[in-house]
Amino acid sequence: MGIAALIFWLLTAGGGFFLLGTWIAKGGTRQPNSTQLPAPVLFGHFLLAVAGLIVWIVYLVVDNTAWAWIAFVLLIPVALLGFTMLARWIPTYRERSAAGTVERRSAAGTAEPPEKHFPVAVVAAHGVFAVTTVVLVFLTALGVGS
Question: Which of these, 29, 50, 125, 136, is most buried using a 10 Å CB contact count?
Answer without folding.
Answer: 136
